[in-house]
Specification:
Distance between the termini: 9 Å
Largest sheet: 6 strands, mixed
Shape: globular
């Protein structure tokens, strides 16, 4: 929801380009307002580790202050999205931890989802192949999801003796696909096919595997070219209105829209309409 901070603004030192951050445990590029985050351990189906969880949490937490990112693409290297927590590097060590240590871990994983939901930039997940466990939660925490026909999504926590309530699954999944379908997936841990995911609203669209990356990038570009301040407001309201009555939501949206009407992008849209031109939004 943050507008660009010009160089002369005294707050400018508090903001920096996301491209200045160099993660060590996943790949990240920023070009023309699009940040592409790639989970890059394809030989293991891109599992998460303690380090990659922490870096993802910190990277997404910094996005509200990033001056160069207007949309994000989240993808996996190779033919898979993410197989979840690494069995050897995470699951094994967890069996030897104390309760306070385990709580620190589960809170850290949840903080990744919190950071993804809190950043103003829309996140497009490009999902191919395996999308399981914590990987399914990264997909679910994204704003839009594109998949392929070979995408296989599983919230398989119950398969390893854990509750389906992990990283916000019991809050997020019913809101996306409905309570009954969410309950089925979280109780059984079974795989949701791509066709089911599309029919149930988990996927916004399915594409051929060799076209997925380009389609996700094109969608991110269209979002980045839109009114980014207003997009951030939309994401904020989508999150906040879960806990509001209809009356509260209508009032909150009235206030949000009045704020957006003060932006230069709103004026640009009107002037472009009058001139019969396409508006060029700048996010302020």
């Amino acid at each position: 929801m943050k507008p660009p901070i010009p160089d002369h603004n005294p707050m400018r030192p508090q903001f920096r380009a996301a491209a200045d951050t160099r993660p060590r445990h996943f790949a990240c590029t920023v070009e023309e307002g699009i940040a592409t985050v790639t989970l890059n351990r394809p030989e293991r189906k891109n599992p998460l580790t303690f380090d990659s969880y922490g870096e993802l949490r910190d990277w997404f937490r910094a996005l509200p202050f990033a001056t160069d990112v207007r949309a994000v693409v989240l993808r996996g290297a190779g033919d898979d999205f993410c197989s979840g927590g690494d069995v050897h590097e995470i699951i094994g060590p967890l069996t030897r931890m104390t309760m306070p240590e385990l709580l620190a871990f589960t809170r850290m994983t949840g903080d990744v989802v919190k950071a993804m939901r809190a950043c103003p930039q829309p996140i497009v997940a490009a999902i191919d192949g395996v999308c399981a466990g914590a990987g399914a939660m990264l997909a679910l925490a994204s704003d839009l999801r594109l998949g392929t026909e070979r995408a296989r999504t599983a919230f398989l926590f119950t398969r390893v003796g854990l509750a389906g309530a992990d990283m916000g699954a019991c809050a997020l999944l019913p809101r996306v696909i409905g309570q009954g379908r969410a309950a089925e997936l979280l109780f059984t841990g079974r795989t949701m096919t791509a066709a089911e995911g599309l029919a149930w609203g988990f996927f916004n669209a399915l594409h051929a595997p060799d076209a997925l990356a380009d389609e996700a990038h094109a969608l991110a570009v269209s979002l980045a070219r839109g009114p980014s301040f207003a997009h951030g407001m939309t994401k904020t309201m989508l999150n906040q209105e879960w806990a509001m009555t209809v009356e509260q939501a209508i009032e909150a949206e009235a206030q949000a829209q009045a704020i957006c009407m003060q932006t230069q992008d709103f004026r640009r849209a009107y002037e472009a309409f009058v001139a019969k031109q396409r508006p060029v939004f700048q996010g302020d």
